[in-house]
Structure formats: C-alpha cells, structure tokens
Amino acid sequence: MSTARGLLVAGTTSDAGKSVVTSALCRALARRGIRVAPFKAQNMSNNSMVVADPDGRAAEIGRAQWVQALAARAEPETAMNPVLLKPGGDRTSHVVLRGRPSGRLRAGEFAGGRATLTEAAHAALAELRSRYDVVVCEGAGGVAEINLRAHDYVNMGLARAADLPVVVVGDIDRGGVFAALYGSLALLDPADQALVAGFVINKFRGDAALLDPGLKTLEDLTGRPVLGVLPWQRDLWLDSEDSLALTAREADAAAAPALRVAVVMLPRISNFTDVDALCLEPDLRVDFVTDPRPLASADVVVLPGTRATLADLEWLRSRGLDTAITGHARRGGTVLGLCGGCQMLGRTIRDPDGVEGSAGRTAAGLGLLDLETVFTRDKVLRLPSGKWRGVPVGGYEIHHGRVRTGRGEAFPGGLRDGSVYGTMWHGSLEHDAFRGAWLAAAAEHAGRDGGRFGRVSFAAAREARLDLLADLVEEHLDMDAVLRLIAEGPPVLPTVRGELR
C-alpha cells in the first residue's frame, strides 16, 4: 500500500468489542507484512501505561492502545492515544495530553471545551498516517451518541475529518444486537451514514446458521454487509481498558488452588491489570471482593491502585475492610499494596495542595508499613528496574504521591515488613521470575509449597492471545472486504432513516 489509509472501528455501546476487534485487525495486518499502527483519539480510562517518547521522556497512554501497539508489532507512543481522560469523580476528569498532565475537564466543559483536544487528536492521526501504511482507529462509547455529536472527535467526527470508512461492532451476548446496529446507523445524519461501511457481530454462541435470517434482514434494510460474526471465546482475554469485566474472571478460578487471592475492588480502581498475571497462574484462585467476609479464607490480600487514594481509604473503613486487612496481616497472611494500595498501607497520607480534593487534608493509613505519602502536583512517570532476592524485576510508575520509607526490608519500588509488601511499581508481577519468587514467599507465609509458581510466561500468554485474535478475524471476518475498505475508502451506500426522524 503506497499511501497511508485507515479504518475506524466503532461500537453500538461501550464494551461492545471495539478494543478486541482493533487489536485483532492490527495483528492480522502486521502478520501480512503491513506497517500498521493503532489509534484512539480519546480514551477515558484509569488503566494507563508509561512509554518512552522520542525525546527520551516518560509519557502516559491508555493501556489498551499500548496492547494494540504490541498487536501491531509497533513501538507504543503518545500519538496512538493523544488524549487520555482519567476520571477523578462523576463530573471531573484529569486530562493527559500527548502523554503529559494537562489540567482537568469538568462535565460542563464536555460540550464546548474540546477544541485543543480535537486539534491534538487530528494532528496525532495525521502524524501516524505519514509514517505507517495503515492506521486502525478505535472509537469510544457508542457511535450514535447524538447528544455529543457537535463536538465529537472520537467517532464520526474523526471519521468525517479523516475520511475514514467505519465498521460498527455490536455485542450479541447482551441481546438486541440487530436493533442496536440498525438504530445506531439510523440515528446518524446522512453525511455520517455515508461513512458506515459495514457491521461486525461479536460474542456469538451457538449455531451461526440461526443468525442468517437476521443478518439478511439487517443487510436488506441498511444496504450494508455484515462483515463477520466473531464467536464467543471462553479463553479470550486481553489487558482490559476499564473495570467492566473484572468480576467475570472469578468463574475461571482453579478448583483446588494452592493459594487463594482476594483483590479488593476499590471504587476508583486503576491499573488493575497489575493482577492479570496472577489470574494466569493455574494454582491460584483470584477473587475480586468488596466486603470483609472473603478475606477470612484468603491467603493473600491485594490492594490495587486507585485514582483517589484518600477517598478509597475512607471507603475501606466504611465497609470494615481496613480491620479485615490489618487482622489478616497480624495473623501472618500476605498483603500486597500496589501504588495507591501501597500508600494506604503506610502510616499517613497528606495532601497539602489538594491534588485529590481539599487542600491540607491528612489521613492515617492502615499502619502496616513504615512509610509516609505526600501528594504533589507534579506527576511521577518512570520506567524503573531492579532486583529482589537476586531476581530481576521492572515496572512503571504513574503517581502524584511521593513516598518516604522508614524501617523494613527494601522491596522493589517500596517496602516489606514481614508478610506485608508495598510497591509503587505497576507491572512488576508481569515479570515471571519475580512473580514466582514473591508467590513462593506468600506460600511460605501460608505454610504451603511455593515451588510451582512463575512457570507461566505472561508475555507469551499475551502474544498467544493476540495471535488467537488474528486467527479469529482471519477465519470469521471478510478480510478481503476489510482490506478493500482500507485501500479504497468508504463505498457509496444508501441513507437509512429511522422512525423518529
């Protein structure tokens, strides 16, 4: 392909499968020798990753785009996710613009305060298109968010600006997929509809022949093909973009685990992909909990990261989880705090400048580690590495809180005191040897055999899933049609009018 082309993967709703289809197409195109890059103009997620920008400075992008870059066999960079919104509450988001903090966006500004963000997104896409053969773009939310269309630069606004063909994905497992696909198209204005080139149905279970009458009717009514039906796959899992799918992993836990792990599902949980590597360990049962009772039977308690440490610490106390966690530690049970969770395990947390809310606020931590946290306006973005007990380990840091450690054993990115561990490094458990060594220590605390952990390669498991995704689209999507859309742009198709017009 001599000129840079692209495609927008949109959805009928959030979590319809846009990220999965985008990742799958990136890997399928990369396997064909095409230089491909992922792109999401704006991601709203507290799950992010640190990357190294060309200037050598650490920067931040959404975790989903980082994984999609791996799928594309491309180097992750901020142009792939120029705008990252990190929800700080129901009405405020922290803005990360080209990898750097850039203030806050309040709910009232969503309609008219996005000119700068739009310009950054369009410039980033143009930059990628100048350097890659193909850019596979992912939309956000639902494609027919008509209340936001006037200032949209993520879905049809982006497609219009870049003349991108659009494929709309619907999740049949939710029910109502035909109405969702037809209705999404019908609600768009004619100029937007002209760019919608086809549909993809995701997560189908059963006999595909049962779908044929519905597929034909949808194609007859819209004049657009269903490019494929992707089957529901039990073992299909990717580093998730948000926390919608967290509880679904409980059912996959081992029947007779060597260790039981309870992950506290904080209301403002962030970077929860830290525990993905634990979910891959065959001898662990990993449950996500919101009340104290499951902690009584757990061997390991994990406090993950959070976008609002002080608020989630209050939540812990309101539910009695603080007492359950400290009691678990005093009985010799293992506790691991990750980033915000690490800060909660300390003695005090201070917020003199109001980074997380009211200026001058101070709260007592759980007192399980001798460390103090002070929030500052400048964000720490780092890609650190080191060793623990002779085992190499690395990770990434994304936080405002500066942690000062006191008495205890040094632990990568933090501190250890007996069976309590705290680290500010995200991603450390993805390092297989380190994960195995830490789980062996946790098993020792529980009086169990710890020699069977860390044998699963997290990186290999991720690669296998990306290849599985590519296999799925190669088998179940009309890839020739997809390649034509990318090369030729959107075809001329009829306008569909809904009953409400």
Automatic annotation (TrEMBL):
One GO BP: cobalamin biosynthetic process
PROSITE patterns assigned to the protein according to its UniProt record, in alphabetical order: GATASE_COBBQ
Keywords: Cobalamin biosynthesis, Glutamine amidotransferase
Pfam name, any one: CbiA
All residue ranges annotated as the CobQ/CobB/MinD/ParA nucleotide binding domain in the record: 8-236
Gene3D superfamilies: 3.40.50.880, P-loop containing nucleotide triphosphate hydrolases (3.40.50.300)
Pathway assigned in UniProt: Cofactor biosynthesis; adenosylcobalamin biosynthesis
Record's keyword annotation contains Lipid biosynthesis: no
Record-linked InterPro entries: Class_I_gatase-like, CobQ/CobB/MinD/ParA_Nub-bd_dom, CobQ_GATase1, CobQ_N, CobQ_synth, GATase_3, P-loop_NTPase
SUPFAM superfamilies (alphabetical): Class I glutamine amidotransferase-like, P-loop containing nucleoside triphosphate hydrolases
Domain CobB/CobQ-like glutamine amidotransferase residue range list: 260-431
Positions annotated as active site in the UniProt record: C339, H426
Protein's UniProt keywords contain Calcium: no
Molecular function GO labels: ABC-type vitamin B12 transporter activity; catalytic activity
Family: Belongs to the CobB/CobQ family. CobQ subfamily.
Function: Catalyzes amidations at positions B, D, E, and G on adenosylcobyrinic A,C-diamide. NH(2) groups are provided by glutamine, and one molecule of ATP is hydrogenolyzed for each amidation.
Protein's recorded name: Cobyric acid synthase
Native source species: Thermobifida cellulosilytica TB100
Gene this chain is encoded by: cobQ
